[in-house]
Amino acid sequence: MGLRFAAAALSLILLAGCAPTETAAPKPVADSSVDVASCQAKGGTVKPVCRRQLPQCVIAYPDAGKSCTDGSQCAGDCLYQGDAAPGTPVTGQCQADSDPCGCKTPVVGGKVGMGRCVD
What we know:
Helix content: 10-25%
Number of strands: 8
Order of helices and strands: HHEEEEEEEE
Largest sheet: 6 strands, antiparallel
Structural class: alpha+beta
Number of domains: 2
Distance between the termini: 60 Å
Number of helices: 2
Strand content: 25-35%
């Protein structure tokens, strides 16, 4: 009888571990360092960016899409959209906005630079 009781007690303990539990919904992360009014005054929009979806001021650049051979010709960076080895002569385009996320390949001095990815 003792063995049956132990087996029954163990079964109840194991089943109790499978019972659904209430979990709190994840709370959004507030970033008090983003000044919405200041962002809007610069023509930006506060929006969640990157994998962590933290709020950041993202500013659209006025020369987005313009042909370039170096970042000095753009409000942001000059980026290459294709697939070429570093050092290959190319023409890029001025980036659309200040969102830091994603994979980007800069054009420096008319040549493909080293790509970088930001999560």
